[in-house]
Design a protein that fits this description.
- With about 140 residues, the chain is of the alpha+beta class.
- It contains 3 helices and 5 strands.
- The chain is globular and about 35 Å long.
Length: about 140
Amino acid sequence: MTVRLSGTPALETGRLTLRAPGPQDWDACAAFLCSDRARHLGGPHTRPDAWRSFGHLVGHWVLRGYGMFVFCLKGSDAALGAVGPLYPEGWAEPEIGWSVWSKAHEGKGYVAEAAAAARDHAFVGLGWTTAVSYID
């Protein structure tokens, strides 16, 4: 049985489906967060720390009613990364965040495609009037 957050939107682009994170995404997320690829997000993390970060990814949807989407190729449920609106407690302003979880999926334009859909969702669907995106 696949557990999913109820009432969360799914977005589609030309090549991608953006959906709320679920338990089936944990291994891909953990592999990323525990690797040197997560160095710009404070990594590499231990698996217990990665678990807490993954809980933040899921919990943001519950606490705010929106959050970062996991993006997958259309027709697949395999997570390629995460992108979307987030605004955790204590942050100065809302952000459109992103990460690509596998080096094999970098450089294909997936993040730009997914981030544009997530940005449109934040401004139109959530009524945001501003957002930032930080890169390192």
